[in-house]
Write a structure and sequence with these properties.
317 residues; alpha+beta; Nucleotidyltransferase, domain 5; 6-stranded mixed beta sheet; 12 strands; 41% helix; elongated; 3'-5' exonuclease activity; RNaseH_sf; REX4_DEDDh_dom; hydrolase; nucleus
């Protein structure tokens, strides 16, 4: 009986050891501590080992904690959150800062340029030759001085011609024509006006008619500073009746363009259909653009055409 019990206990112990070995082999893959049995049959804790490529055993490192599914967000230096797009946001912020820097740089450059330009109020020389001013201060100052003195340079005349006249256009009559007259004063104080010169251009700016007119009354004020008329101009001029007939023939059936045309037609003793008149002084869009109820021709040319006219003596052409 004692032998049978001993054999039975040995078989139980063998079965237990076999089970424990199998369990140990299954759990080796996991990095967890597994129970083991020593030679005395006591259960002890043993660390699992992994074999390297060269067959040597090494301790298995502890497993890292699993990451949560949500991506952690952190704030960058600009205070914006980065969730995988941080690089793009940083790049965008960098571009914005660069643009702001460029704007500040351009503004500073413009201010420096404006400070370098001479102001019109500072050009107060009255009896100094503009050439001397140009040599001493610069071309901009000389330009201001010439304008203040009413001097028109050849360059400005050329630019006006280039803007207002089409060089290779027709020189004949066109459907639309423009007219202007220069007047001189008659009467005790020269307050009344008579025609002294008539000029007509076609729609391309080409002059098609320009004649001085003999006075029909004694002239008491030639108004040379404004009209540009001198006694020798009108002494040899065309007879008024002839000029009146020629102008009436040109205007017949055509669109008439001009500035304050009622004054020009009045001194010529002529009339023209209202529907065929285009008066730049009375055109509402022009008055709205320059914010003036009765704008001068000089103001309209400066604001709308960007050319200077009537800077000294007027020229009807």
């Amino acid at each position: 009986l004692l032998k049978q019990k001993a054999n039975s206990s040995n078989e139980s112990l063998s079965t237990c050891q076999t089970y424990t070995k199998k369990k140990h082999l299954l759990q080796v893959g996991n990095s967890q501590e597994v129970p083991a049995i020593n030679g005395n049959g006591n259960v002890v804790k043993a660390k699992s080992t992994n074999k390297t490529d060269d067959g040597s055993a090494r301790d298995n490192p502890p497993l890292a904690k699993p990451k949560s599914k949500k991506v952690a967000t952190d704030k960058n230096l600009n205070g914006t959150k980065s969730d995988g797009k941080g690089c793009k946001e940083k790049k965008k912020n960098g571009n914005i800062l660069k643009e702001k820097g460029d704007i500040k740089h351009k503004r500073r450059k413009a201010e420096e340029h404006a400070e370098q330009q001479p102001k019109e109020a500072e050009i107060w020389f009255d009896d100094v030759d503009p050439k001397d001013i140009e040599a001493a201060i610069g071309p901009e100052a000389a330009k201001i001085a010439r304008r203040n003195l009413g001097l028109e340079t050849g360059q400005s005349k050329q630019s006006v011609e280039q803007v207002l006249v089409k060089e290779k256009a027709s020189e004949g009559l066109t459907r639309a024509i423009a007219m202007d007259c220069e007047m001189v004063g008659v009467g005790p104080k020269g307050e009344d006006s008579i025609v002294a010169r008539v000029s007509i251009v076609n729609q391309f700016g080409k002059c098609i008619y320009d004649k001085y007119v003999k006075p029909t009354e004694e002239v008491t004020d030639y108004r040379t500073a404004v009209s540009g008329i001198r006694p020798e101009n009108i002494k040899t001029g065309e007879d008024f009746k002839t000029v009146q007939e020629e102008v009436a023939d040109i205007l017949n059936g055509r669109i008439l363009v001009g500035h304050a045309l009622r004054n020009d037609l009045k001194v010529l003793f002529l009339d023209h259909p209202k529907k065929k008149i285009r008066d730049t002084q009375r055109y509402k869009p022009f008055r709205q653009r320059v914010k003036n109820g009765r704008p001068s021709l000089k103001l309209l040319c400066e604001r709308l055409l960007n050319v200077q006219v009537q800077t000294s003596e007027h020229c009807s052409v």
